[in-house]
Amino acid sequence: MTSTLPNDNIKNFDEQITNKLISEIIRDRIKSKGTRFSANDNIADFINPGELKVLEKEVASRIKDLLKSLIIDVDNDHNTQETAERVSKMYLNEVFKGRYHEQPKVTSFPNDKNLDEIYTVGPITVRSACSHHLVPILGECWIGIKPGSKVIGLSKFARVADWVFSRPHIQEEAVMILADEIEKLCEPKGLGIIVKAQHYCMKWRGVKEPNTSMINSVVRGDFRHDISLKQEFFELVKQQSSNNNY
Ligand SMILES: [Zn+2]
Fold first, then answer.
1. How far is the CA of 210 from the centre of ligand 1 (A)?
2. How much distance in Å is there from the Cα of 58 to the middle of ligand 1?
3. Residue 67: helix, strand or coil by DSSP?
4. Ligand 1 center to 202 CA (angstroms)
5. Where are the alpha helices (DSSP H) in the chain?
6. Which of 183, 165, 168 is nearest to 220 (CA)?
7. Fewer Cβ neighbours under 10 Å: the N or C end of the chain?
8. How far is the CA of 188 from the centre of ligand 1 (A)?
9. Domain boundaries, given as residue ranges, for the chain
10. Burial zone of 183 (CB within 10 Å; 0-12 exposed, 13-18 middle, 19+ buried)
11. Mean pLDDT of the 204-217 span
């Protein structure tokens, strides 16, 4: 068993000769650390350089099997011949990249001028997929900050939001995870996040309601304790809201 071997090199060698699928090797690593690997967790720390390419091939072969089980003639239907490879790349490197890729680099700076006025950033476009049906969730997000000891560039909020949302999610948890990441990056005195999104599992299937959206928010720190600050946050966001249909 790999877990009983003390030396990392031997461990890696042992992994190579087990003929395990790369997904099994990565999963075993995660389990040996007792780490959670739910759909909306990032597992980049457990993927070694070069392994994502191998995983891409494994996922493609599984998707090809899925298409075959759906009785689609992948051998002769020219439209679906490379669909499995395309979908695999899309999952691992685009729509679910927030699971397999590391967080974009965000540099924080000391808040030298002791800025303490709140500001909001938005709307930031967010794209996700529901964990239940793997169909899109598309929407907008607003982030409000009362600065603490550190500040980060405005564009970084959009990058981190994109990274967090690019995983299968339920909206309520996505907002909490984004709040956790922003707190880690800039340790604000107050933080507020609002997400308004449309869920294609309601638009495209199920009840087929085309215009229903879900709005949820999280407020932390001073935004939670100070009612007037919270109101100021919601007021600023109202001014930033666009008039599209999200
Ligand atoms: Zn769904």
1. 14
2. 25
3. helix
4. 7
5. 8-16, 22-32, 51-69, 83-90, 97-100, 154-165, 171-186, 200-203, 222-225, 227-240
6. 183
7. N
8. 33
9. 2-100, 108-240
10. middle
11. 93
Q: Which amino acid is at 14?
A: D
Centre of ligand 1 from the C-alpha of residue 131, in Å: 6
Ligand 1 centroid – CA 30 distance (Å)? 27
pTM: predicted TM-score of the whole model, two decimal places = 0.89
DSSP 188: -
DSSP secondary structure code for residue 3 in this structure: G
Question: If you measure from the C-alpha of residue 32 to the centroid of ligand 1, how many angstroms do you get, rounded to a whole number?
Answer: 31
Cα(246) to centroid of ligand 1, in Å? 17
CATH topology of domain 2-100: GTP Cyclohydrolase I; Chain A, domain 1 (1.10.286)
Pairing mode, strands 168-169 and 190-199: unpaired
200: amino acid identity, one letter: Y
Distance from C-alpha of 157 to C-alpha of 193, rounded to nearest angstrom: 11
* 82-123 pLDDT, tens digit each: 999 999 999 999 999 999 999 999 998 999 888 889 999 999
| C-alpha 121 to ligand 1 mean position (Å) | 28
Which class is 108-240 in CATH?
alpha beta
pLDDT digits (tens, 9 = 90+) for 179-191: 999 999 999 999 9
Q: Nearest CA to 242 among 202, 203, 199, 196?
A: 196
Tokens of 134: 């793997």
- Taking the CA atoms of residue 192, residue 93, residue 202 and residue 38 in that order, the dihedral angle to the nearest 10 degrees is -70
Q: Which two tokens stand for residue 239?
A: 């001014």
9 pLDDT more than 80: no
